[in-house]
Structures are given as structure tokens and as C-alpha cells.
Write a structure and sequence with these properties.
The structure is a single chain. This protein is an alpha/beta fold. The strands form two sheets. A six-stranded antiparallel sheet has the order 4-3-6-1-2-5. Strands 9-8-7-10-11 form a five-stranded parallel sheet, with helices on both faces. 40% of the residues are buried. The protein is globular. Strand 1 and strand 2 form a beta hairpin. It contains five helices and eleven strands, in the order βββββαββαβαβαβαβ.
Length: 212
């Protein structure tokens, strides 16, 4: 199987139908918040590969991927059932949307975009910078990390999927408060782009990851 073999350190539930996959960091793996990897495994004996974005602020000894579980998926249910000690294969990191600890951030997430958004906010805090997290999802994940961020002074908005007016207001309130990142599926990030422009910001300055 192609890719670097990595050991699964832990798998834990972080929301409804969502797990955090903790992997031991292989030698020479140097990734930044916002980047993603290609994960390979062979459930049922057939190789499957999927992309997952990092959801940990660092990759020093281990790193985390947030996995939304599709009951009919080829890989995510198998990953969710792992207990630690298993081996998967990985390629990467990939992606040019990164945070390097160099300023304030406004991290906007829809659904599975919460992983990289939280990791970027945590990395900004660790670097001594302010952060904002704006997250839209009817069934939020990583609530413990969001609560910890809020308790430490980060402005955190957790909004229902149909709360589009509130989403637009939150973005408009913070569009000039730092480097804007947005992570989510196509309809979500398209709406975020339009909202940034309506609020007087420049959507071309935003770093946007479209999950398809």
C-alpha cells in the first residue's frame, strides 16, 4: 500500500457521528493547521483512500484528524471502530491554506470544517494572538474545545444550520478582525464569500477550503 505507515494512537467520540483519530507522528512529518492528508486503509481487504484535514494545532508527537462517520461510507465507519494500535497509511501534508502563527484569525466553519477552524484558533492563541470562531451546524462537534476557547477569551459563535442571518451578522462583525479562514462544503463557503463581500470585506483575501 502506498504512503507512510502510521500507528493509530487513539480514537474518541467528539460529536454525534464524529470521531477524532489521533495518529502517531512519523519522522519528517511537518504539517501546519489548515493542511490535509490522504489516508489509506483496506477495510474488507479492499484499499480505500480519503482526504482528511488536520484538527490539531501541532503535530509534535501525535496529530489529529476529525472524521465524520457516513454509515454507508467505505472508510469512516471502519476508522471509527478502531481502538488504537492499528496501522494506516498516509500521504501528505497537502494544501496551501495554512496558519503559521503570524496574526489574528477569524475561522469560519460549516459542518466538518470545525476541525481545522478549531485547530487554527488554538494555534493563534498559543502564538499570543486573538481569534474568532464562527461555526454553523445543527449537531456541533468538538464542543469541549469550543468551550475551552471561549473560556480563554476567544469569541465563539455556534449557530444552527438555518441561522443564516445570525451567520451573516457574525461574519460582518468580525470580517476585519484578522485573517479570515473558511472551511466547509461548496454551498457554505460560497455563502461565506458573498457575505464577506456584502460586509465590505475582500473575499479574495480570505483563505477558503471547499470540501466539495
Amino acid at each position: 500500500m502506498e504512503g507512510t505507515p502510521v500507528t493509530v494512537d487513539d480514537v474518541r467520540e467528539v460529536g454525534s457521528d464524529t470521531v477524532a483519530l489521533e495518529l502517531e507522528t512519523p519522522n519528517d512529518f511537518d504539517a501546519l493547521p489548515g493542511q490535509f492528508v490522504l489516508l489509506r486503509a483496506a477495510p474488507e481487504g479492499e484499499e480505500v483512500a480519503r482526504h482528511y484535514t488536520l484538527s490539531s494545532p501541532t503535530v509534535a508527537e501525535t496529530f489529529e484528524l476529525t472524521v465524520g462517520i457516513d454509515p454507508d461510507g467505505d472508510l469512516s465507519p471502519w476508522l471509527a471502530d478502531l481502538e488504537g494500535g492499528e496501522t494506516v497509511h498516509m500521504e501528505g501534508p497537502f494544501g496551501t491554506i495554512t496558519y503559521e502563527g503570524d496574526g489574528e484569525v477569524v475561522a469560519i466553519a460549516g459542518g466538518p470544517g470545525v476541525g481545522p477552524a478549531v485547530s487554527i484558533a488554538e494555534a493563534a492563541q498559543e502564538a499570543g494572538h486573538d481569534a474568532v470562531v464562527i461555526y454553523q451546524d445543527d449537531d456541533p462537534a468538538h464542543e469541549d474545545r469550543l468551550e475551552a476557547l471561549e473560556a480563554s477569551g476567544v469569541a465563539v459563535y455556534v449557530l444552527a444550520a438555518d441561522a443564516n442571518d445570525e451567520l451573516a451578522d457574525a461574519i460582518a462583525s468580525h470580517v476585519d478582525d484578522g485573517q479570515v479562514y473558511a472551511f466547509g462544503f461548496a454551498d457554505f463557503v460560497t455563502g461565506v464569500t458573498e457575505t464577506i463581500e456584502d460586509a465590505g470585506g475582500d473575499p479574495d483575501d480570505a483563505l477558503i477550503e471547499n470540501f466539495g
